[in-house]
């Protein structure tokens, strides 16, 4: 399995999101609408993980992934995207802002990222780990 690669890695921490937009079904639907705006490649798969404080959804492809972690009670979302191809990060961030009607957000870009595992159970565990990391970083009102 490939672990790290050069490409485009975007992390968007959004706030002021209405709770209904962060419910599992709506989060998954919105992420599916955003997927064409990011170079994911072939072999597209989707996984949703639900917890007591919200849900996480990931779309994985042969060239990258797109993940969203929603926290409805806090009105927060973290969107993470990685792709080995060229990506219009500004356009993608604008799409995320529009689709989730963000009250504000912080954006980080880097030129390298990691691939997610293909094994479903390992992917679920990695997604839970990313969710915990996002929850620890996101601070209401920041």
General description of the model:
The protein is α+β, with helices and mostly antiparallel strands and 142 residues long. Helix content is 29%, strand content 37%. The protein contains 3 helices and 6 strands; from the N terminus they run βαββββαβα. The protein has helices at 24-34, 89-100, 120-137, and strands at 4-15, 45-51, 54-60, 64-71, 76-83, 104-114. The protein has a 6-stranded antiparallel β-sheet, with helices on both faces. It is globular and about 35 Å long. The relative contact order is 0.28. The mean pLDDT is 89.
Quick summary of this structure?
It is built from 3 helices and 6 strands, in the order βαββββαβα.
What's the helix and strand layout?
Blueprint (H helix, E strand, L loop, with lengths): L3 E12 L8 H11 L10 E7 L2 E7 L3 E8 L4 E8 L5 H12 L3 E11 L5 H18 L5
Antiparallel strand pairs: 1-5, 1-6, 2-3, 3-4, 4-5
Mean pLDDT: 89
**Secondary-structure element order, as H and E?**
EHEEEEHEH
Strand percent estimate: 35-45%
Assembly type: single chain
- Residue stretches low in confidence (pLDDT < 50, at least 5 long) are none
């Amino acid at each position: 399995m490939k672990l790290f690669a050069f490409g485009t890695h975007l992390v968007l921490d959004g706030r002021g999101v209405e709770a209904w937009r962060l419910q599992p079904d709506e989060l998954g639907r919105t992420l599916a609408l955003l997927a064409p705006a990011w170079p994911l490649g072939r072999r597209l798969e989707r996984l949703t993980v639900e917890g007591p404080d919200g849900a996480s959804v990931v779309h994985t492809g042969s060239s990258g992934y797109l993940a969203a972690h929603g926290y409805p009670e806090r009105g927060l979302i973290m969107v993470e995207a990685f792709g080995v191809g060229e990506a219009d990060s500004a356009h993608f961030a604008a799409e995320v802002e529009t689709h989730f009607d963000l009250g504000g957000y912080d954006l980080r870009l880097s030129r390298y990222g990691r691939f997610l595992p293909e094994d479903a159970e390992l992917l679920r565990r990695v997604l839970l780990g990313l969710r915990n990391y996002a929850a620890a970083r996101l601070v209401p009102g920041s």
